[in-house]
Amino acid sequence: MTALLLHGLGADRRQPLELLAPPLIGVEGPGVRMLATDARAHGDSALLGTPADFALDGLAEEAVADALALDPGLADGPVTLLGISMGAAIALRIALRGLLPVDRAVFVRPSFDDTPYPEQLRPFPVMGQLLHDRGPAAVEDFRESWHYRTVQHRSPAGARALLSQFGSPRAAERAVRLVEVPRNRAFASDAELARVPEGGVRSLVVAAERDPVHPIELGERWASGLAAELVVAPPREDGLPALSARIREGVARWLEANPPRR
User: Fold this and answer.
1) How far apart are CA 162 and CA 11, in angstroms?
2) How many other CB atoms are there within 10 angstroms of residue 52's CB atom?
3) Fold of 2-116+185-257
4) How high is the mean pLDDT of the chain?
């Protein structure tokens, strides 16, 4: 079995490997083939480009091309997609467009919906503009912003996660990603979501409680549209170990109940 793991906005390929490799190995065994790529302007990617290069469909095509360069056999399937936040949106575009022979998909804490710049993602272009104008030192300006305070009121741990964008490698140089990626829609409508199970792809959605950037209501919407099981993890305030453990347990249980088709 081959799995393609896709990271979130501002992270890199280590993020899904650290979170999702344990349940994959635990269920599929040490022989599972895991591919994790860095999106444009993330991790070790040397690509930056123009604002137009950050369309989700383009990022999906690049992820598939990078993965195929690592393992051409990926095109023969079956493939399991696992994506976190932005990575979940990219995984959805891969499945919807048939860019790979996808058998299973795990969407962890989705944050994109059918609107550009949805409310939950509006802090990101603000951070991107601040980073572009003033660099990482602008973190103090963001702390004073309405966007930060709104998230902090609902989830102090979620607000601290936003601040980590200012400490990312080459954050100012890559600020365009924070402005442009949230402009995307992950899907056009709930009817488009329904095309995924109609195409034979089995899905799991993972959401977390009290997560302003990845609202549980949005996770419920994805799960409903995809005819997918929904796993609800505890909030960040319970601690990262508790959150990660619940995600891993839920993903492992679902993978075991839904083995890959041969």
Assistant:
1) 12
2) 8
3) Rossmann fold (3.40.50)
4) 97
pLDDT value for 77? 87
What are the pLDDT digits (tens) for 78-114? 999 999 999 999 999 999 999 999 999 999 999 999 9
Distance of alpha carbon 206 from alpha carbon 233, whole angstroms: 7
Rounded to an integer, what distance in angstroms lies between the CA atom of residue 102 and that of residue 152?
A: 38
* Pairing mode of beta strands 79-84, 2-6: parallel
Give residue for tokens 């949805």: 118
Chain position carrying tokens 């102090």: 156
